[in-house]
Design goal:
- It is a single chain.
- The protein is α+β, with helices and mostly antiparallel strands.
- The chain is built from 31 helices and 18 strands.
- The strands form 5 sheets. It has a 6-stranded mixed beta sheet with strand order 1-8-3-4-2-7, with helices on both faces. It has a 5-stranded antiparallel beta sheet with strand order 17-13-12-11-18. It has a 3-stranded antiparallel beta sheet with strand order 14-16-15.
- InterPro entries: DUF4357, GmrSD_C, GmrSD_N.
Length: 705
Amino acid sequence: MSHTLTAKEQSLAKIFSDDYVFTIPGYQRPYAWGREQAQELLDDLLGALAAAPAQLSEAAPYFLGSIVLIKGEASPEATVVDGQQRLTTLTLLLSAIRTTVGDVEVQKDITSCIYEKGSVVKGTQARYRLSLRDRDREFFRQNVQHEDGLQTLVQLITSLPDAQARLRSNAQVFIDRLAKLPQAELVRLVQFVITRCYLVTVATPDLDSAYRIFGVLNSRGLDLSATDILKAEIIGGIEPALRDAYTQKWEDEEEDLGRDEFGDLFSHIRMVFRKAKPQGTLLKEFKENVTPAQKPQQFVDEILLPMAQAFSELRDADYASQRHAEQVNEHLRWLNRLEFKDWVPPALTFFVRFRQQPEAVLSFFRDLERLGYSILARKAGVNERIERFSALTRAIEAGSDLSASSSPLQLSPEEQHQTYAALSGPLYETHSSRALALLLLRLDHLMSDGSASYQHEVVTVEHVMPQQPAPNSQWLTWVPDTAAHQHWVHRLGNLALLSRKKNSSASNRDFAWKKSSYFTKGGTSSFALTTQVLQHLDWTVEIMQERQETMLKTLETHWRLQDRKSKADLAEAMLAELGVVGNTAMFELESARHGLAAMAEENGDSFTVLANSQAKLAWTGQPHTYQQLREELCSTGALKLSEDGSHFIFAKDTNFKSPSAASATVLGRTDNGRNTWRLKGTSITYAAWQDNLPGSLPVTGCSEV
């Protein structure tokens, strides 16, 4: 077999002739061009036609891009590796011109470019210039390629699969635009398309070469997506006898999810395996981290299909089980409302493993909602989100106990404190309108006992007490103090939900008017939070405070924030615990700059640096008695040279009179050891530890105070 690669510039007259019989293989993606691409193609062609001279043979060639084919030199049969979108859309355009033009002879000529009719007398079958994938082939022939099909297609009102719906939509685009052209212009257009429009055909009889060309072209920005290239490589790597079956599996999932969501799924799968912030393209990182090409069947069966099924259930909040299904789906509905989707990779990882364990599923998604909304309330950045959810994915894969307080699924006491503090604060000022509305909707649903259903096209957050009350208004009678107004105006206790756009002119109206005409429709509100407001006759600080406490208590209970502790509280508790133990404690000193690490023990009589601790090789600071101490330790053998000669090592436990003497010996310069040494495993300094001890307990650091 010849392996010659050929590349030719050929007019569409040549492309749509007996020289080529194009077939879209089953492993190709569905037809994907939308109305925008179809409109752009026609606009470009009409623009080029308008600039062409009266004699079209003198017009400059108009290039439509390239197509990649698997094709032998002696045969017209051509498998399309890349270019099906152009070929399909050009065939659709020719069919639309044929439907719109009135000249019968022109219609016949166009038909000859689309397909060669069969002959009863000669006993021949119709020969189509382009055959789509098996799924869409007959639909395309009947509704696009045959003479009477296109008008039927645009009038179809039944639901169609994605690819066929796009064909119908694009046919309508073409017909609507072409119907506005004079008949002479239609004839001139089809002449221009057939005779002056060119494609570059890149053909090779070798499958592997065709895929290499395909990958190169698309890595340079042509219009196929990363999933299309991955599909070509993965399905192309499966033995030929199984390709059609695996193509069917792949495309069933792509069609069920929809093309955009299918692409999102691949991004989530990438994150499941990479577990870090993306640094390159999806295509590059998918190949580096997921490596489906090495085991294509295993990837489809064990990764893609289970993940796609899980993704569908998570996205649609459609978990089915005899136990806890509705509770799980409730958590999923609220997770899906989050603007960020970093929670999806660990959710997929968990769901494909434990889907059949409803108790575990409920516990996981209850806690995942808690974590997601805590991150929303705390306004955690993208890097923090990715790091946290990647850690959760690793924990799931490792089989860790996700209910443990140290699990990345759980909120630490400090995170609980930060979440509660954010919810207690002036949310209207600190959070985006979208995040604020979502937090209030979640709260509203909880306070309505789960009976509220949100189908509103618009949900906005409004102040009850205005941001700027009018002079002499009743608002100032209820809250006359400016400081009190500023404290409460943006907090939960003064916020309500509206199912309409905000009206700035209504914000300053009096309370009675806002209740009857602004917060309600027909005298009622669909939001529990707003209904609460309607029950009050006055709007005082006491009412806002009581309402705030109720709202916070609801969120505190639902998201389990009762164990919250601030950083100061945690440090105090730790110090208090250490203080009870006594004056013996372990300390550590690390210098990343010099690659040093040392351990020491304080026992009240001495500060002891432990054997195998490291020290800097040379003294680099100002002359000091600590320098003399180092030299003595070296001369006695207490400090010895490391094997590689890069630093000193303490040969034995060595006592010092103070933490500063010890840290100066380690660092090779004068140093305040009370700030350098830290309690082992904490960020608590020696000084902070010492300050917490009872005054009666002796410590070596006392001599430095």
